[in-house]
Amino acid sequence: MLLEALGSALLGLALAAAAVRLLARRLPAARLVLASGVLGALFGAWLTGYALGPGHASPMATLAGAVLVSAVVLSLLLRPGGSAGGPRRAPFSLPSRG
Q1: In 50-76, which positions are buried (b, 16+ CB within 10 angstroms) versus exposed (e)?
Q2: Is 40 a domain residue?
Q3: Number of domains, the chain
Q4: Residue 68 included in any domain
Q5: What's the rounded Cα separation, in Å, for the pair 28 and 49?
Q6: Which of 62, 47, 89 is nearest to 7 (CA)?
Q7: Is 21 left (phi over 0), alpha (psi -120 to 50) or beta?
Q8: Secondary structure class of 27 (helix, strand, coil)
């Protein structure tokens, strides 16, 4: 269990570091992103372990759940990027003909 938690935290940290490196302009402060990645992974490991129940034999499933939840948490931190072409309009709006 301790190795699963440590592995989950390291995977969350690696995912957050990659996000900071690749998407620095669209993310808030790096410390917040790194902390969110680690905490999201730890929560994902706990949630996956709780869903699978006691005595599950696959730590890989726990690590996969940790990475998925960490990625979801990091995606919530993304700010919208600038569009390259055309005027911006509200989401799900139809273009006007006029």
Answers
A1: eeeeeeeeeeebbbebbbebbbebbee
A2: yes
A3: 1
A4: yes
A5: 30
A6: 62
A7: alpha
A8: coil
For residues 98 and 79, what is the distance between their CA atoms, to the nearest angstrom?
31
pLDDT in tens, 33-90: 999 999 999 999 999 999 998 887 788 999 999 999 999 999 999 988 765 555 666 6
Instruction: Please name the amino acid found at residue 41.
Output: A
Distances (CA, A) of 33 to 5, 19, 37, 39, 43: 19, 8, 6, 10, 15
pTM of the model: 0.80
| C-beta separation of 41 from 66 below 8 A | yes
In a domain, 97, yes or no: no
Question: Are the C-beta atoms of residues 13 and 73 closer than 8 Å to each other?
Answer: no
